Backbone:
């Protein structure tokens, strides 16, 4: 291993630790009233859970997951510029960039993990309690960051080694946006995964929803949860 590669590896480890610290204590199962360095934090327990397939792929009519709650409202697990329904069993946690500490190095590493293009992670919705290994993450940005297409293109470009991008228009809750499906090659794991994302622009700034699974199979199993979020998305 070269010095450069070793430095990058340690930076990834440190960033993963920081991301864990940024998930605040308000983590909870999505309530009914409200509603990157290491993205593949897999353990043997995770693998066993994935085999259960207890709820993440459970579908209602039209290939949409059953609703388990919602996020976005002020009293929900993740206050956001938008709100949407969360699939049954998925667990939402707010991401707090300020929870990493006051040191300049900590904030720099946290920014590297939490920021992707013009947006920053604000909420992480974990599929593992429902039987899959992956996340639906919500990123938010500042007003004036650009239109939905430019925001989404910058988001995808920031992911790195991507291919087969397919963009298309989407309308959710009266908000016009853009959606993309693409493949991402993780060089560290030497594998290519499928990913989906959409972007809308609200009066409070842009919002990106990103579905990220361990592999292509996990992604496909979690698509009904992504579809539920997309179809119920609306300004908060």
Residues:
């Amino acid at each position: 291993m070269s010095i450069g590669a070793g430095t990058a590896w340690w930076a990834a480890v440190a960033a993963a630790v920081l991301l864990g610290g940024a998930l605040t204590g308000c983590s909870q199962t999505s309530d009914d009233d409200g509603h990157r360095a290491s993205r593949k934090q897999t353990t043997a327990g995770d693998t066993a859970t994935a085999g259960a397939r207890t709820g993440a792929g459970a579908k209602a009519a039209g290939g949409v997951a059953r609703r388990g709650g919602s996020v976005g409202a002020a009293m929900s697990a993740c206050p956001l510029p938008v709100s949407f329904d969360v699939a049954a069993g998925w667990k939402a946690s707010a991401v707090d960039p300020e929870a990493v500490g006051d040191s300049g190095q900590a904030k720099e590493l946290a920014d590297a993990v939490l920021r992707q293009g013009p947006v920053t992670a604000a909420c992480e919705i974990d599929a593992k309690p429902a039987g899959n290994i992956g996340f639906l993450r919500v990123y938010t940005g500042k007003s004036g960051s650009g239109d939905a297409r430019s925001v989404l293109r910058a988001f995808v470009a920031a992911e790195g080694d991507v291919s087969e991008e397919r963009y298309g228009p989407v309308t959710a809750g009266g908000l016009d946006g853009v959606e993309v499906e693409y493949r991402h090659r993780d060089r560290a794991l030497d594998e290519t995964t499928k990913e989906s994302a959409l972007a809308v622009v609200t009066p409070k700034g842009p919002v990106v929803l990103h579905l990220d699974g361990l592999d292509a199979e996990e992604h496909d199993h979690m698509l009904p949860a992504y579809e539920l979020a997309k179809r119920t998305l609306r300004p908060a």
Observations:
- The longest strand covers residues 175-186.
